[in-house]
Amino acid sequence: MAETLPPPRLLPSGDSAVTVEFSRTIDDAANERVLALDKALAAASIEGISETIPTYRSLLVHYDPGKIGFDELGEKLLAISSQKLPPTTKARRWRIPVAYGGEHGIDLEDVAKALNTTPGDIIARHAGGDYRVAMIGFTPGWSYLSGLDKSLHMSRRESPRLLTPAGTISIGGVQAGIQCLAAPSGWHLLGRTPVRTYQLHRNPTFLTEPGDRVTFFAIDPKTFEDMDRAAEAGEIIAERVDA
Amino acid sequence: MSRLVVASIGPASSVQDGGRHGAQRYGLTVSGAMDRLALAAANTLVGNDPFAAAVEIGPFGATFTARDGAVRIAISGAPRNADIAGKPVAMDTSVTLKDGETLTLGFARGGAFTYLAIEGAIKGEPVFGSLAVNARAGLGSPYPRPLQAGDEFTVDAASGAPELRIELPNPVSGPIRVVLGPQDDEFDDANKALFLGSEWKISATSDRMGYRLEGPAIKHLHGHNIVSDGTVNGSIQVPGNGAPIALMMDRGTSGGYPKIATVITADVGRLAQTSVGTAFRFKAVTMAEAQDEARKFAQLIKSLPDRLRAADTVELNIEALSDANVAGHAVNAIDAGTWQVTAEP
What we know:
The complex is a heterodimer.
Chain A: E1 9-12, E2 17-21, H1 28-44, E3 49-54, E4 58-63, H2 70-82, E5 93-100, H3 108-114, H4 119-127, E6 131-136, E7 143-146, E8 161-164, E9 168-172, E10 175-178, E11 183-185, E12 188-192, E13 213-218, H5 221-232, E14 239-240
Parallel strand pairs in A: 5-13
Antiparallel strand pairs in A: 1-2, 2-4, 3-4, 5-12, 5-14, 6-7, 6-13, 7-10, 8-11, 9-10, 9-12
Helix pairs in contact in A: 3-4
Chain B: E1 2-9, E2 14-16, H1 36-45, E3 54-57, E4 62-67, E5 71-77, E6 82-84, E7 87-88, E8 93-97, E9 102-105, E10 114-118, E11 152-155, E12 164-166, E13 176-180, H2 189-197, E14 201-202, E15 210-214, E16 229-230, E17 235-237, E18 245-247, E19 254-255, E20 259-263, H3 265-272, E21 282-284, H4 287-303, E22 308-310, H5 312-323
Parallel strand pairs in B: 13-21
Antiparallel strand pairs in B: 1-4, 1-11, 2-3, 3-10, 4-9, 5-8, 5-10, 6-7, 6-9, 12-22, 13-20, 14-15, 15-18, 16-19, 17-18, 17-20
């Protein structure tokens, strides 16, 4: 007998999209259901669905109301969501180099002070983590990671910075992130990676996918410069270690 | 090939099309025209696909000059005075610029965005199927940024096809219609009523990412932080200060503020064309009504080719009236923006 799971909430996002919400909080189990529904919908190819956007706790489903109505689509989404989760396939795993501190991570010292420890200890705790890409959003390639060490949870900056550098590796609240393009941010900047999670004329254009696993390792500023040049020329730089 | 040179142009003007779909899951937003109906009307007039790339012109004036041959264009959207060497050009018509001629567009008279479509469309290198400018992501072709004086487009030489006008339905007036949600349960009944019952104005700090709304502060039930989830064109989020922001085409693909309501598809372009400082209201409609309006809107865009008419029919009528000595000076009173013939007092 098939195991049934509690139904998600269907929240209308206008007349052409619906948010399928599995949880109101950041929750890896809910995120796994989001990604499972995303995968199941791709396989089901339901007429009218044009695009799906997985986030931490919900799947936003864009559809054409000329092809399928809210009620009919809602029933299908609930039916698929109630099915047993498929066995998890082996996740891709990336090792990502980070130049911590100094000009690359201007908040490292302050974070260490706020947590009564040393910058070296912060680096060890951040690089020692085993992370999961929960979602990609806001700007191209911005990868939101779950799995941040509890001792590194701290509230965001009171006043967000209007511009933070491309490649920024940061933490905010219970989350960690890999930022690709320069963008505003209220998170704490620990370092920078030469890895581009988004690069237009490279194959693949987008490196990370929701569900991927990520670990970090420290590099020195000189290595950062060398890798940054190679990355600019189109090299992926990040090491794939699951294969 | 001819060239269309941007001789002068104001801010908030860029190449836009139907948008970039399929990569929102990687954080790449859709961009595309703020007023899809106006984009489609302009394109239809010059025989292009409705969502082909065209110039989206912000509220300020602009001038375009044809070089190396004639260029056939059409304008639709926010009305403005337009002329070629002093001869008025009407909105919602096609016209051919001869080599060396300049099209002069004034400020938008109401609304914000006017679309200039070029016969054969703007050419460039599409990314995810679109030439639309998304300046933050460095995307858009031929220029991955807002347009500047001196920019130019290599375009098809004018075909010499007869000029056309397009009969658009009367603009919908009244409140901007919304469907409540996805996070309307983050607000109590009094604050939902305040949102739906109040007059709003678009703030001057608005842009293609979002329209900031000026009006009463809307209070949240449980604070303003939710775990980020997906956004759509027309999502109305309420940040900590209680001033709602309607997310537009260059929005972030996800956001962490509660979204009280979502503008219906048929009204997103109307909201985009609401001038800064003009008072308006929202009205909640049912999902069934919103989806019915969305289907009608799609049907309207599909029907645009059937709404084309020979451009000279209006002029002929005016001549006929003039000959009959009925219209007096009415010819001079044609409003180049709307084709309204106003009677002389």
